[in-house]
Amino acid sequence: MNGHTPRTERVHLERAERRELSVELETTLQRKVSFAVLGLGGGLLLAGGALGAVAFVKESDARAIRDTAATAGGLPAESLARFDDLRASRDAFRLAAVLSAGAGLSLTAIGVVLRVVDRPSAPPIAFEEATPPSVPEAPSAVELAISPAVGPGLVGASVVGAF
Question: Is position 158 within any domain?
């Protein structure tokens, strides 16, 4: 299963024996890292959105001052300084929003890739050769017996066979 470490376990069963097995697989480190990277990317996307909203508010305030200047025929020095400050902070927040959202998008893409390619490989399983059950030896189909025969005036051998 993707994202989980494979597990092997040796189970010995007798003939016709039934046993229920329950296995809990551990999450891989790569899957945990992908969740962290996805979370960080999502947080940066939210931060980029919030910084973009602040930049939009600064832009709206600066436009309000500009519109007031257009209808009043000019700006006093303090309003002009406020206008310049609003534009400068708007630019700073806009840059921060773009950088945060870009980093968030990049991290989110990396997190998705880490999650998709998380395919752990199973360790090789060492199998033992099963020893066959011992079977008593069947008697040989052919039996032969040779015995020497030695005595006074007698030297020889006897052979006995059964089929």
Answer: no
